[in-house]
């Protein structure tokens, strides 16, 4: 849906095929990182989404405890406190050196996010949405993509389009249709979950406020809205059969921890099981070049670190402006090639981080009770205190998992020189080439100039720096250099067509 929303805001018509008539009911991603928030700000979603999320005064604290059921340890065994979004804004304002984003992260359940996004998409006249329709297969040729879909009654429809973006999840039928493999790596970690509500919020906070709570009995509990909604995940021991016969009792046992089931009234909304698998498609673009993969269709991650939906949002933000440039006839073929080249390495990085977080942080956290002994961890003895210190060290070492900072149409040329001649030159040459460029001349802005370390900077539509002038200044930047820079960064000329030695820095 974000792809459809973004294309609509770029002025492109599209057809949205969604097999479900309703948005997700599953308690998936509830952590939106800095980079995604910057994207939302650019596309006009921040002011619409922030009021729906957890208020900015709430932080991102994590606790490790023996449970909420009256165990031996009255306070959390370990605690990680992080600044709230409101506090981050104050910190960043005092340290405005280019190292911080403008938008803090946000806590917003994907359940709420999708509902709002569907509402917005349905208002866009250029989005032709078909809810309850299923994608079956596609073929592509040099001119178009022909997709076969079925309506809710099973009737077949054929759709022709210039391009297709497959955002259809880990079991992507679009990916299968274009013959792209996505080998799966199983980490061997299986969990059961329950999504629930409770009005007895005071019982959930007997050990302080928290965003995530890990208990000695292998449960991870997530506070979804700081009002009444939570999700609990609990590890299933390898090789052990598991059947959640009583979801309510499952929740109470998980919350209670070593103190026995917590006496609390809960309403279980949804429950099930999931496996910690990883996968990355061999390519994010079809052999024919007209079909693209994004989100879980391109890469599947574990929830560890919160990269799932965030990486999908970033895929779409990268891809849509490039497709728009092609459809508007100012982008070149090499620009679409850059989608896989840019996004797949990011998926590989996120996959490594998710695996590292799963195997080196969360799995040891879940099994710490077995490693150190339950009685030792809760004992009011000197050795018990030593065991709890080991837990604190392990928890502290894993705090990085939620501290990975994610890190308007047309290009912008930012000129800090006193004359402002280079920005005007870029704007003129860009006009001749049919490339949208906005010149920003700010000769008195030394702070930004110091951060970017150059007198003139070319910024892509997605906010990335595509070019910086030479360190020694703009003396050698003439018409021919400007033309080659522009044609290179929009994919209309091979990267090797320009001698980059001591001249420019490219991120394309």
Model description:
Residues 2-352 form the FAD-binding domain. It holds the Pfam family FAD_binding_3. The strands form six sheets. Strands 4-3-12-13-14-11-15-17 form an eight-stranded mixed β-sheet. It has 16 helices and 21 strands. It has three domains: 2-30 and 109-182 and 282-358, 3-Layer(bba) Sandwich (FAD/NAD(P)-binding domain); 55-95 and 183-280 and 367-407, D-Amino Acid Oxidase, subunit A, domain 2 (D-Amino Acid Oxidase, Chain A, domain 2); 411-497, Glutaredoxin (3-Layer(aba) Sandwich), CATH 3.40.30. It is globular, with a radius of gyration of 25 Å. The chain is an alpha+beta fold.
Q: Which CATH architecture of the largest domain would you pick? A: 3-Layer(bba) Sandwich
Q: How do the strands of the widest beta sheet line up side by side?
A: 4-3-12-13-14-11-15-17
CATH topology of the largest domain: FAD/NAD(P)-binding domain
CATH class call of the largest domain: Alpha Beta
- Rg calc: 25 Å
Shape: globular
Please tell me the overall pLDDT. Answer: 87
* Structure summary, number of beta strands: 21
Largest sheet: 8 strands, mixed
Give the count of helical stretches. 16
Number of domains: 3
Strand content: 15-25%
Work out the helicity level. 25-40%
Structural class: alpha+beta
Poorly predicted spans: 406-410, 496-508
**End-to-end distance, in Å?**
26 Å
Q: CATH H-level name of the largest domain... which superfamily?
A: FAD/NAD(P)-binding domain
